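Retro notes (design track)

What went well: tokenization of the new backbones is finally stable.
What didn't: we kept losing track of which sequence belonged to which structure.
Fix going forward: every design gets posted as structure first, then sequence, in one message. First example under the new rule, 348 residues:
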């Protein structure tokens, strides 16, 4: 009887998680995070879905405006870059909304070739494109009514954090730069998480090269990380990042536009990328945040140490949090937001 009760409990929890995700998807804006905007109410933070052209690709974005937004006034603005595989309706949207609650105009866009943005083949994931996406958001938001283009900040989450560091190295429109749970995509794609795939680098580069050759010949586009993961498989994963990431992206905060997969040919570019290269070029104020229990912390620490070009930098640990928990757990989001409000409030 006890075993049956335990099984029933697990089934009810799983059903509840799935129902919660499905309920969240009923949000008219597709937002899947807690306390997401469901309607634009005068005098409160509002969301404005927009589309714009970036190098021939239609980009889908959301702009969040502060309470009592007045286009004739002047506001600081923040560009928010989403994680690898994520979309604007998940963690990036949560932080964009919370920053708007603190008085900033914010923009978060789906990366080109991903989410609701255009571009084919789907799910191309090249660092140069992701960095250009960030610059494109800056192009758009600095022309938005009420935005003071001299007070532009940048926040990158996970993979978006690594690409934000790269963007800020050369784009000085960004007056202050922050990252949350930064993930150095190129280094991980090349060496494996925690250097776990060093022995297969050349083999995987050959696979990427062959995939590009096949595409060029008009053949099928191949994808990496395209398999569906079961809860049981996730539970047996050795890293918190991937185990908890499965539940976040596939269960509690699932969104139909979000996917882990990317074109295998993208690895040619990804594996040559390192977000921590040229960190000395960042001369803007820099805030890097990570969970104190995050198994990705080593990436934040490495990049932070290399940021020798700025006199104003801070490494902030979110006490008790793992990487994925900084995306949604209220207590950890509150810690991050308190620091972000202080940081951007000071420098913007």
């Amino acid at each position: 009887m006890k075993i049956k009760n335990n099984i029933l409990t697990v089934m009810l929890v799983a059903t509840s998680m799935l129902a919660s995700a499905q309920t969240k998807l009923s949000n008219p804006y597709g937002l899947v995070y807690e306390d997401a905007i469901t309607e634009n109410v005068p005098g409160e933070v509002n969301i404005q879905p927009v589309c714009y052209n970036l190098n021939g690709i239609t980009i889908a974005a959301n702009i969040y405006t502060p309470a009592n937004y007045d286009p004739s006034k002047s506001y600081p603005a923040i560009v928010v870059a989403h994680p690898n595989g994520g979309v604007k309706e998940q963690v990036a949207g949560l932080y964009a909304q919370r920053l708007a609650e603190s008085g900033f105009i914010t923009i978060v866009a789906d990366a080109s070739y991903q989410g609701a943005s255009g571009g084919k083949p789907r799910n191309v994931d090249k660092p140069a494109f992701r960095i250009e996406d960030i610059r494109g958001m800056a192009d758009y938001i600095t022309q938005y009514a009420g935005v003071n283009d001299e007070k532009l900040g940048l926040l990158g989450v996970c993979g978006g954090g690594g690409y934000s560091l790269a963007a800020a190295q050369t784009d000085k429109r960004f007056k202050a730069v922050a990252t949350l749970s930064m993930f150095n995509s190129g280094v991980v794609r090349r060496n494996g998480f925690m250097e776990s795939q060093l022995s297969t680098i050349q083999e995987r580069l050959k696979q990427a090269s062959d995939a590009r050759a096949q595409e060029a010949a008009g053949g099928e586009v191949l994808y990496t990380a395209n398999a569906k993961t079961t809860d049981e498989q996730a539970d047996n994963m050795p890293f918190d990042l991937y185990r908890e990431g499965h539940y976040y992206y596939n269960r509690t905060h699932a969104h139909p536009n979000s996917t882990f997969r990317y074109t295998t040919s993208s690895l040619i570019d990804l594996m040559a990328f390192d977000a921590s290269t040229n960190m000395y070029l960042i001369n803007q104020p820099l805030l890097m945040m990570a969970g104190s229990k995050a198994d990705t912390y080593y990436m934040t620490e490495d990049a932070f140490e290399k940021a020798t070009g700025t006199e104003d930098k801070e490494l902030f640990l979110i006490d008790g949090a793992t990487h994925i928990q900084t995306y949604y757990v209220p207590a950890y989001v509150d810690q991050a937001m308190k620091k972000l409000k202080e940081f951007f409030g000071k420098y913007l």
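Added context from the reviewer: Strands lie at 46-54, 57-65, 75-81, 105-109, 147-157, 174-180, 223-224, 262-263, 286-291, 313-318.
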